[in-house]
Amino acid sequence: MTSLSRRAFVTAAAAPLLAGCGGGDRTGRVTAGLREGPPPPSRPAAGTARALGRSVPVGLEIPAIGVDTPVMPLGLARDRTVQVPPLTADDVAGWYRHSPTPGQIGPSVILGHVTVGVHGDGVFRHLARLRRGDLIVARLENGTAAVFAVGSVRTVAKADFPTDAVYGDVDRPELRLITCGGPRTGEEYRDNVIVFATSSPAGP
């Protein structure tokens, strides 16, 4: 994977470009923006876990596909696209630090590679195999964990990336996992795989 779907949680006037794996590519970029910071607190929907306070994610576990990875923070690059984790043999996931932290009200966004060049498979290589109800556990810096249950998994063309569905305001803690997918030409993938998950009172 060359890069990931990206949208900054900043004002629309300063909206960054989103390029590569997860929302556009070198031939088709999209721009989008939200107000600065996470949405205001509101009452979580019935059947979801209580919202947590802000605490940076440091690890991610997805038992159904064997993922247990550190999580690094990602910001914006100089070209106003969101940074992605480095292409290294010890590939890790990355949390976009301008999105809510996992467990806060709003969509927390975590990106990962499906392949890492000469190093082979990436940390999110099996993301498309997830099914409704599979658990995702985000380990937080304060020693707690935010638990999510997969609601849906979508594979979409990069040109049709569902920006509002991924980054739009929600009234409960949610999680988005994003990587590349679909047919591959050279180092480019045509599609994105997006996991939509909601907070769950269930433990891992």
- Give the second-level CATH assignment, the architecture: Beta Barrel
Share of residues in strands: 35-45%
Alpha-beta content class: mainly beta
Q: Residue-averaged pLDDT, rounded?
A: 79
Strand order of the largest sheet: 4-5-6-7-10-11-9-8
Largest sheet: 8 strands, mixed, barrel
What proportion of the residues is helical, as a percent range? under 10%
User: What name is given to the CATH topology?
Assistant: Sortase, Chain: A
The CATH homologous superfamily is called: Sortase
Instruction: Write down the overall geometry.
Output: globular
Number of domains: 1
For the record, give the distance between the C-alpha atoms at the N and C termini, rounded to a whole number. 29 Å
Number of distinct helices: 1
Helix-strand string = EEEEEEEEEHEE
Uncertain stretches:
1-20, 22-46
Cα radius of gyration in angstroms: 15 Å
CATH class: Mainly Beta
Number-wise, the strands total 11
Write the SSE topology.
Layout: E1 17-18, E2 24-25, E3 28-31, E4 57-62, E5 67-74, E6 93-96, E7 106-111, E8 135-140, E9 145-157, H1 163-167, E10 173-185, E11 188-199
Parallel strand pairs: 5-6, 7-10
Antiparallel strand pairs: 1-3, 2-3, 4-5, 4-8, 6-7, 8-9, 9-11, 10-11
Describe this structure in words.
The protein has one domain (12-36, 51-199): Beta Barrel (Sortase, Chain: A). Helices cover 2% and strands 37% of the residues. The chain contains one helix and eleven strands, in the order E-E-E-E-E-E-E-E-E-H-E-E. The protein has one helix at 163-167; strands at residues 17-18, 24-25, 28-31, 57-62, 67-74, 93-96, 106-111, 135-140, 145-157, 173-185, 188-199. The longest helix is centred in the C-terminal third of the chain and has 5 residues, at 163-167. It is globular, with a radius of gyration of 15 Å. The two termini are 29 Å apart. Mean pLDDT is 79; it is low at 1-20 and 22-46.
